[in-house]
Amino acid sequence: xxxxxxxxxxxxxxxxxxxxxxxxxxxxxxxxxxxxxxxxxxxxxxxxxxxxxxxxxxxxxxxxxxxxxxxxxxxxxxxxxxxxxxxxxxxxxxxxxxxxxxxxxxxxxxxxxxxxxxxxxxxxxxxxxxxxxxxxxxxxxxxxxxxxxxxxxxxxxxxxxxxxxxxxxxxxxxxxxxxxxxxxxxxxxxxxxxxxxxx
Length: 199
Prior knowledge:
Blueprint: E1 2-5, H1 16-23, H2 36-54, E2 61-67, E3 76-77, E4 83-92, E5 98-100, E6 106-109, E7 116-119, E8 132-139, H3 150-165, H4 179-185, E9 192-193, E10 196-197
Antiparallel strand pairs: 1-2, 2-8, 3-7, 4-5, 4-8, 6-7, 9-10
C-alpha cells in the first residue's frame, strides 16, 4: 500500500500572521516578513507531525492510494480522515492496462475516524492477480485555516512554536511531543485494535 499526497497546502492557507502573534514577534517593522520562510517550515512540520499522530488530514488536499488487495471487498477503509470525496477509482493489471471504474459502482461512507469506500452492490471491483487499485480522494477539514477544529488549530500553533523555540536543540528524543499538544490531539487519534489498525 502506498499513500501519496497529490496536492500541497498552499502558502496562502497557512496562518503566518497568527503564528507570529502566538510567538509574540514584533510587528510594524519594514522587515516583518524576514522570518516567513522559517515560520512556514515550522508550521508545515507541525501539520505533518499532528497528521502523523492522529491519522487526520488537517488542511484539505488530494491524495492517491495504491493497494494490491482489498482488506474487505464489502468496504475498504481509507487510510486517513476526514474524506470529503472519492475523485476516482481505477484498476491496473500486470500489463499496465488501466480500467477506470464508473462512480455509479461505488460510494463514500463518510466518518470522522474511519471513512469507507463501499460498493454500490455487494463487492468492490475485483483486483486482478498482480494488479493494483488506485483510489484518488480529497481529505481534510477544509481549505482554509478557519475550517480546522479550534483545538487542532491551537495544537498546530503550539507544536510549531515548540519547534521554533527548540530549533537548535538536538538532544530531544525522537518521540517528543509537548504535553499540551498531546492532550489536545488525544481525542482525534485512531484507536488501534488487536495489534492492527482500526482503519
